[in-house]
Amino acid sequence: MLQAISLYKKFKTKEVVREINMELLAGESVGLLGPNGAGKSTTISMLSSLVIPTSGDVLWDDKSISKNPEPLRKTLGVVPQEIALYPELSARENLAFFGRIYGLKGELLETRITEVLKKIGLSDRQKDIVKTFSGGMKRRLNIGAALLHKPSMLIMDEPTVGIDPQSRTYILETVKQFVEEGMTLLYTSHYMEEVEMLCDKIYIMDQGRIIAYGTKEELKELVSDNQTIELKADLFTANFEKALGEHFPKATLRIEEKILTISMSKSEEPLATIFAIAAANNVVITSAIVKVPSLEDVFLHLTGKALRD
Fold first, then answer.
1. C-beta atoms surrounding 27 within 10 Å
2. InterPro entries given for it (predicted)?
3. What is the pLDDT of residue 64?
4. Domains of the chain by range and CATH?
């Protein structure tokens, strides 16, 4: 359905995207992961015809969109990372505006607005001004604007950033329903579990390049020889972290909310050593869990960065 061929983008002297090759088949749900600055948003902008590549091409149904992007635009829905709504208009007025841009009018437009409001759970707030909405409601309306023309493909660029857990769950369940109904999806997120939940195939970007792609199972095979150990303590001291790093120089360590995660080779048997280092540095470990490799372990292995860095 959509294919990127050797996409390259340079802004002045900065190379942002380098030789990207991607393919989305009809009905596929595809994740695009990468640390901040990896080039994801620029890639999405080129795939959706909003940014012209410096070189390379994008094909829609085997035809280049460079000179004629209209066939793609008529059937593509895009949910941008930033909220793209008119805050002084009501929810229904916003949808009416975007519907007209898609060429909808009259009874068909009104019907589609009513259907979309129901799908995104905002029927009872349709006459309210958008500036009074919560962040989650604005995100849902942003998604609704992309659905008005019944797109066959949806591109979503971090659609759950900065919203409450209830709204996030609602959005994820809605998107999951789109996927089950056969919509083609390209999805980027800073939340690994979202990609695990929604996507059949995953591309991982770093420094403007695709560095790995495949199904979740195929990607996890890349770290099948690794193990992840999750430690909990009231306080991890700097000396403890330094000692761990010196004893396990090839391991990857990160701390998040009183949880220390260590990724290392399965050939090592580290728990006794870790507890000894903790005792020597006055760190009381309250929990230690050895986990099977996850998608986030693959990401860390390939990029050396946590997804939220």
1. 15
2. AAA+_ATPase (IPR003593), ABC_transporter-like_ATP-bd (IPR003439), ABC_transporter-like_CS (IPR017871), P-loop_NTPase (IPR027417)
3. 94
4. 2-220 (3.40.50.300), 225-292 (3.30.70.980)
Helix axes 106-119, 91-101, angle to 10 degrees: 130
Give the closest residue to 120 by CA, choosing from 141, 136, 105, 91: 141
Asked if 35 and 189 count as a contact pair (C-beta separation under 8 A), the reply is no
Which of 254, 232, 205 minimizes the C-alpha distance to 43? 205
What was the pLDDT predicted at 309? 47
Task: Give kind and range of the element (H or E) at residue 22.
Answer: strand 14-24
pLDDT at 193 over 60: yes
**Structure tokens, 89:** 């208009």
Report the predicted TM-score, pTM, of the whole model to 2 decimal places.
0.78
CB 303 within 8 A of CB 211: yes
Alpha helices in 29-134 (DSSP H): 40-47, 70-75, 91-101, 106-119
What is each CA distance from 15 to 34, 52, 208, 278, in whole angstroms? 16, 14, 8, 44
Closest-CA residue to 288 (of 246, 244, 249, 250): 244
**What's the number of CA atoms in the CB half-sphere (13 Å) around residue 38?**
27
Q: Are 168 and 136 in contact (CB under 8 A)?
A: yes
